[in-house]
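Re: the request from the purification team.
They wanted to know what the chain is likely to look like in 3D before they choose a buffer screen. I agreed to run a prediction and write the result into the notebook, where they can find it.
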Amino acid sequence: MATTRFIVRPLVGTALAIALAAPPLPALAQETPAARPATEQVIVPQVERREIKRPRFASKDIALGVYGGTYATQNFGAAAVTGLRLGYHITEDVFVDATYGRSKVSDEDFRQVLPGGIFVQRSQTLSYYALSAGWNLLPGEVFFGSSGARATQGYIVGGVGSTSFAGRKNQTFHLGFGLRLMLWDQFALQADVRDHIFSTDLLGRRQSTQNLEVTAGLTFYF
């Protein structure tokens, strides 16, 4: 019986030679995250823009208030005083205000020594107006219980004005300090201590007087 032989080695060698002689296949381009530009936007949103009307909030820079307290006129004692206040906050730290106040001054103590007293009548009206510049320098908070707090602000003021007293008008300078307690967005309690300084000659010689005023009031912001 004849034997059939298969020739394998020459065929394998031929295939290997053809593979080595063929040019190499191009490498597949693989994109890596580092190759992508950093500014390239991957997802472009398709959002339709719409016009938005911005709300207008009240600036609340103007303050209008009333106050009351005591006014101690040097040499004539203390009496009640009432007044009006109008202010404007230029910035968060700087403000200006104008005040007008009225009080009664009596010479009753002098009438016990001098029969005619100092005034034509036993009491005279004292009125003043003042223009002030102030500086807010001590912002803080006051807590009411465990869940409520109100903003506070300490300030100093100074300015000039005029005081009408016993038929005379006297140029006046004043210095003082105060504390503001915000009750709500538009209302505040305000307490002031101011020293009104002016010259007078009611007692026979001209002298500079120190007239201390202590007041408290309610202020409305708009």
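For the purification team: Residues 9-21 form the longest helix (13 residues).
Please add any questions underneath this entry.
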